[in-house]
Amino acid sequence: VQLQASGGGLVQPGGSLRISCAGSGIIFSRNAVGWYRQAPGKQRELVASMTRSGITYYVDSVKDRFTISRDNAKNRLDLQMDSLKPEDTAVYYCYVGGIYWGQGTLVTVYS
Questions:
Q1: Residue 67 burial (CB < 10 Å; 0-12/13-18/19+)?
Q2: Residue 81, SS3 per DSSP
Q3: pLDDT tens digits, 65-96
């Protein structure tokens, strides 16, 4: 199983980024999927997740700003991040099936 995350970068507060996670060796639509993040000096936290049936969860701090989506045809997981804040700065990791992790993509929100 390989998961490749991409799309991170630098953005000003209030801006948007879309990060993606492309997978091989595992079918996203048959597994729970999601995104974690880890900020400097902090523990990794669950940001958003999606069950096999498409039920989504968001941590309170990103509700109404982030949107998780899954492209079954492309076997890809996306996270659309809007109205970004400095506290969203972190390395974002995708996960699939509860045990497979991507390598992480850095999102930096600076003013």
A1: middle
A2: strand
A3: 999 999 999 999 999 999 999 999 999 999 99
